[in-house]
Design brief:
Layout lengths: L17 E2 L11 E15 L4 E15 L8 E11 L4 E11 L4 E10 L4 E10 L5 E10 L15 E9 L2
Antiparallel strand pairs: 1-2, 1-8, 2-3, 2-9, 3-4, 4-5, 5-6, 6-7, 7-8, 8-9
């Protein structure tokens, strides 16, 4: 059975973050980045949907677009929702610390199912406040593809890595 890891992982809010300009902002005020990181899932994901939480962190690279001197950053956050190894929906919040000394608080919703997971949200405060956030997500079980067998165990899948690209 092929397992898809497309669930409660809140990290997707910044997996390839695309911060589009908000209303009243200049058209070039957005920021696009790539990201890689890891997430810890509690309780572990199984084939049966259940409530859970996710803690995540990652590094943003190759950022461009806002003209505010942002080229990289780091993100930490958490999410909670209902999910399994095959599908889910979670509400998340994250803080991005940018290389130029500013930060952004982000909130949004991740919906996943067959194929890539998609996150929609916005920057709620700090740098780029009001900008929409859109992300496409790719997950990998810790330990590589064979790590997906944890979905069949009572403890479930508890750790994933991620990387993403902007839309």
């Amino acid at each position: 059975m092929k397992h898809r890891l497309v669930v409660v992982i809140g990290a997707s809010i910044v997996l390839g973050v695309l911060l589009l300009p908000g209303s009243g902002q200049a058209a070039n005020a957005g920021e696009a980045c790539q990201i890689a990181g890891s997430a810890t899932i509690t309780p572990g994901l199984t084939l049966k949907p259940h409530s859970g939480t996710v803690s995540f962190s990652g590094n943003l690279t190759n950022c461009h677009g806002s003209g505010k001197g942002i080229t990289s950053g780091s993100v930490t956050g958490s999410a909670s929702g209902l999910g399994s190894c095959e599908a889910g929906k979670s509400h998340l919040s994250a803080t991005i610390s940018w290389n130029n000394g500013t930060s952004s608080s982000v909130s949004g919703v991740l919906v996943s199912g067959p194929g890539p997971a998609i996150t929609e949200g916005k920057v709620t405060s700090g740098a780029l406040q009001g900008a929409p956030v859109i992300a496409i997500v790719a997950f990998q079980p810790a330990g590589g593809p064979t790590g997906a067998t944890a979905c069949n165990k009572s403890t479930g899948l508890t750790s994933v890595t991620f990387q993403g690209v902007t839309l």
